[in-house]
Amino acid sequence: SADSTLSVVVVGASGDLARKKIFPALFALFYEGMLVENFQIFGYARSKMDDEAFRDTIVETLTCRIDAGEDCGKKMDTFLSRCFYQQGQYDDATDFQRLDARLSVMEGSLCSNRMFYLSIPPKVFISAAANAADQCASRTGWNRCVVEKPFGHDSASSLELSQALGKHLQEDQIYRIDHYLGKELIENLTVLRFSNLIFEPLWSRKYIRNVQVIFSEDYGTEGRGGYFDEYGIIRDVIQNHLLQIVALFAMEPPVSLEAEDIRNEKVKVLRSMKPVEMEDVILGQYTKRVSKAHTYPGYLDDDTVPQNSITPTFAAVAMFINNARWDGVPFLLKAGKALNKRGAEIRVQFRHVPGHLYRSKFGADPDAATNELVIRIQPDEAMYLKINSKVPGLGLRIENSRLDLPFHEERDRELPDAYERLLLDVVNGDKRLFIRSDELEAAWDLFTPVLHKIEELQAQPELYPYGSRGPVGAHYLGAKYNVRWGDLS
Ligand code: BG6
Fold this sequence. Notes:
By secondary structure, the protein is of the alpha/beta class. It has helices at 16-31, 51-59, 70-81, 93-107, 122-135, 155-166, 184-194, 225-250, 259-271, 418-428, 437-457, 473-480; strands at residues 4-11, 39-45, 83-87, 111-118, 143-147, 174-176, 208-216, 281-287, 289-290, 295-296, 314-319, 331-336, 343-350, 372-378, 382-390, 398-406, 462-465. The strands form three sheets. The protein has a nine-stranded mixed β-sheet, sandwiched between helices. A six-stranded parallel β-sheet has the order 3-2-1-4-5-6. Strand 1 (4-11), helix 1 (16-31) and strand 2 form a beta-alpha-beta unit. The longest helix has 26 residues, at 225-250. It starts with a strand and ends in a 9-residue tail after the last helix. Bound molecules: 6-O-phosphono-beta-D-glucopyranose (BG6).
């Protein structure tokens, strides 16, 4: 509204995430008219820079989603004129006081709301949060703090972090971001389940044979090896992004769409899950591949990765939910870097049709005839259902065909990036898509024992060549539970 002002402070403004995601998302929100009229954006980081130089660093990353015309250029200029830079250390109270002073001058006598986005390494995390909260909080409006993973590296460290954060911020001020929750098709998952009569009745062990959540990237950790090596793929992607998908997929219907009701159900289902067992984990690490045209570096070829590292860049895990709805249904999660394809999908394989009426029409492979629901999160957002139908014409040939719901066609340029949706939610104080502290705790409890075991045993990852389909162990893990992994479409 006209009598309030919004200040966004991106702490860690020179980082990759800030440049690639946060500033472009803020610009997109401005472009769409979603920000209040009076706003300012501050980058905060250690390097010396003035406002102009800072603007130069972010302008390169801004794009116009809808039209690239003159109007967009003007909007960019306006946006940039509201971007400022404050140089400072993360653990220096006076630097944050300087920022506070500049903000206060700009905000004037308006009611001022402040959003802090902490996009910084774990070791400076608490001091930056403390300084933002204690030295730089608005005295007239709300203060909200967005925090990015890693939220610790196991149950104990995560709890420690939460407690330290809790000394400076109230839980309702903390927005733990998991950007997968801001993706269009993940948002759509609950709509699909709870607003269609035909899905929810099938959504249980009675009809679903297994659920697969597959994440695959066709590039390695190039340049990010330093961070990645300390975490590995389970902490980087599975314990958060993929597990969040499972929680939304498998939770009971919430009492309402209110944030607390949804998160209550997510915690409940996470707490019903069995902690992952060592024998249900396959680890992999990619190696160099030389083709005629190109040499693809192995994980260990990255200068930022310690020699002899056994950090997994691939993992497949089998998980189970011990409740009435899902008892015995394997949830198979798989994530890897430097694989043959880029994509993320949820694949729901249904049971065989009882009885044998048409089975012979499918030849030897009974799986060929089962129904499968595929939710493609990216690229090319889509949903399709594999159903059996007769090949038109004389005779009786049956084929497994697709009932298709593409979302990307014609519309893809307009689909907002996950960060846009999530940042707007922060501005609006909507916590539906953010992780509550007990959810985080439950998520860590599922993976901490096995992560410790992996470290204790110094478990060696299976090597796989860059650009391949990943370690063959994943195939055997599937077979153990009678699951054949779907191929990314
Ligand atoms: C991040 C991980 O959280 O998600 C990265 O740290 C990963 O390793 C990225 O590449 C994937 O996000 P997206 O949106 O590109 O699928």
